[in-house]
Amino acid sequence: MGFAHVGVPRSGVADWFSARLANALVGNVPSAPLLEATLIGPRLRFRRAALVAVTGAPAPVTVDGAAVPPFQPVAIPEGGVLQIGTMRSGVRAYVAVRGGVAAPLILGSASTDTLSGLGPSPLTAGAELPLGNADQCPAPPADDEVRELAKNAAAGVLLAVREGRVRFLPTVEGDPAQLAGEYRVRPESDRVGVRLAPIGKPPEATRPAETMGMVGGAIQLPPDGNPIILLADHSVTGGYPVAGVVIHADLPLVAQARPGDRVRLVAVSEEEAHAALVARHLVLARVER
């Protein structure tokens, strides 16, 4: 949990699965710093040649104006310009550069926490980012089958987003029948949490809970009955009742749900939650080998 005991949230990428795929495709370690873009991608000029991969929400990707495929390593020449357009579905895209982004570390992390303001500032026009040493990275996957696996795995996440099924584990106090149902993603959603509006009768919030530690995926029930699914920049404590926790394998789906999307919360067992996470990691094991 990092520094949660002193009030610092975990932060980091919202869609952990897409981020790990991006790093794997260029030969980085899973935790290498990379860029997260929301709804509209950046325009990046490289002062030296680099190998990059773009994953996550689908968007047009070009290098020096020529279209390039996502979900595979792309060589960028010295002075080349990588541009990512508006995302057609989903919310977040990831840009990994071989060697990683050499961002300054704060409390051991290169992440930007939008809630507390800790970490590097969000990128603005003209900002410069140093890159890490690509020579120290292992060779990226050259097998077309592995690249296709990464592409299909990411497509599966986005398909699941469109289908809207998000699985959760009920808490001891939570009533799965009360929380399960259909919702729409509200426009107030951000990296702190995805806010939902019930389609039909809202779930009834129980009495206010004592302040407790929070985890990513926790489903809070405020008094208005509009659930909040906590994401990467959530506060470390909270006082709203927690009726359930989205399983870790489905957090990427929540991170890619955009305002107006339908979400259907479905209660599952611990065994199903574990099996779903194992399936995600089996894909990563093949891409990261």
Structural summary, described in words:
The protein has 289 residues and is α+β, with helices and mostly antiparallel strands. The protein folds into two domains: 4-158, no CATH class; 162-287, Cyclophilin-like (Cyclophilin, Beta Barrel), CATH 2.40.100. Helix content is 20%, strand content 24%. The strands form four sheets. A seven-stranded mixed beta barrel has the order 9-16-13-14-11-10-17. A hairpin with a 7-residue loop joins strand 13 (218-220) and strand 14. Helix 2 packs antiparallel against helix 5 (270-287). It is globular, with a radius of gyration of 19 Å.
Name a few traits of the molecule.
5 helices, 2 domains, alpha+beta, Cyclophilin, four-stranded antiparallel β-sheet, 17 strands, 289 residues, 24% strand, seven-stranded mixed β-barrel
Largest sheet: spatial strand order: 9-16-13-14-11-10-17
**Oligomer category:** single chain
Rounded to an integer in angstroms, the radius of gyration calculated over CA atoms is 19 Å
Query: With helices defined by DSSP (H or I, 4 residues minimum), what is the helix count?
Result: 5
Q: What is the string of SSEs from the N terminus onward?
A: HEEEEEEEEHEHEEEEEEEHEH
What global shape is seen?
globular
Number of strands: 17
What characterizes the major β-sheet?
Answer: 7 strands, mixed, barrel
Helix content: 10-25%
What is the structural class? Answer: alpha+beta
Mean pLDDT: 87
Q: How many independent structural domains?
A: 2
Low-confidence stretches: none
Distance between termini? 26 Å
Task: State which percent range the strand residues make up.
Answer: 15-25%
Organism: Acidothermus cellulolyticus (strain ATCC 43068 / DSM 8971 / 11B)
Keywords: ATP-binding, Hydrolase, Ligase, Lyase, Nucleotide-binding
Protein name: Urea amidolyase related protein
GO molecular function, one term: hydrolase activity
